[in-house]
Amino acid sequence: xxxxxxxxxxxDGSPCRKCADVLARLERDGYMDAIDHIVVAxxxxxxxxxxxLAAQFEVExxxxxxxxDADGDTRVYTVYLKFLKEVLRARTNEQAxxxxxxxxNPDLDFL
Length: 111
Known about the structure:
It is a single chain. By secondary structure, the protein is α+β, with helices and mostly antiparallel strands. It has one domain: Glutaredoxin (3-Layer(aba) Sandwich). It has helices at 17-28, 49-56, 80-86, 94-104, and strands spanning 2-9, 37-42, 64-68, 74-77. It has a four-stranded mixed sheet with strand order 2-1-3-4. It is globular and about 35 Å long. The termini are far apart.
């Protein structure tokens, strides 16, 4: 298995706040060793590796994780806690996972 983290640099050159948060959480929780590659999606450069990966996998938000298994199949994760739970087998809080999904999708609402 190979894991790539794609983080974003915004048009104004500043780092993505959510990306910095996820990187800090990975470091704090001891999961950085599980990440094989970190790639930058630089909004100022549509040819940057991260922007190309985002287009290839039709991802519109950052950060995201690409998980390639031994068979060459790639899964995309845009929700950090879901990535932790399904890929790194970490224990997560379902309420926190739901909150993260809602924060990334403001058009959604609770029922």
